[in-house]
Amino acid sequence: MKRIWVILLLASAIQGADVTLSMTGQSMVPNFVRIAATHQANRMFAGIGVRLESEKQNIQGRSEGLLIQVRFINDTPGHPGAWGFSNPFDPVPLVTVLYDRILLVTEGDPQRRAAFLAHVLVHEIGHLLIRTNAHSPEGVMKAHWSKADCTRMAYRPLPFLPDDVEMIHHALALSSTTGGRLLPTVPPGSPAGERF
Ligand SMILES: [Zn+2]
User: Fold this and answer.
1) Over the Cα atoms of the chain, what is R_g?
2) N or C: which end of the chain has fewer CB within 10 A?
3) Model confidence over 105-143: pLDDT tens digits?
4) What angle do the packed helices 162-175 and 113-130 form, to 10 degrees?
């Protein structure tokens, strides 16, 4: 069993990431929360066969995959009811996390803050990969997580639905033929703001 893991890890190291996150403003997030959240996000994408990693400092060059900027900010006006938003129709993929709102929504239960942040990251990265602001009826790509969803995600991650997985793999396969650029799957028809 150990040998299988070594082979898988080696294969992963050779292939590099499908998606690399480059973060700014992350100093406002305690290290243990950010690290736990990014590890959980990595696992959620690994569960659907997508390799996600954070950009490592002091490493020259990076893998061939898609680079997504993630910025953490506070005190952002607008985007009512959102914990983050993304820009699936812009050429430079960017996820914005409204961290003060995540602090507020998890105030009564800080233990689930990392899991909540992971889901916000995964949801917004999902929009960027699929290049659409459309939502799924259930799971991590749902438009509005219920209270039960929020409780559940602390113990078991909300899943991608099969259609989400298919669209993400389709988009990544296309991007590998366009030098890492993702192509829109749905024309922009609504404001760039994202509910979450
Ligand atoms: Zn959304």
Assistant:
1) 16
2) N
3) 999 989 999 999 999 999 999 999 998 889 999 999 999
4) 60
Residue type, position 111, single letter: Q
CA of 120 to the centre of ligand 1 (A): 9
Please, are residues 69 and 94 in contact by the beta-carbon 8 Å criterion?
yes
Output the CA 34–ligand 1 centroid distance in Å. 21
Give the rounded distance of the alpha carbon of 147 from its chain centre: 21
Whether the full predicted model's pTM is greater than 0.85, yes or no, is no
Neighbours of 180 (CB within 10 A): 15
Cα–Cα distance measured from residue 119 to residue 189, given in angstroms and rounded to the nearest whole number: 25
The second-level CATH assignment, the architecture, of 16-175 is 3-Layer(aba) Sandwich (3.40)
Kindly report the number of other CB atoms within 10 A of residue 138's CB atom: 15
Structure tokens at 40: 């959980």
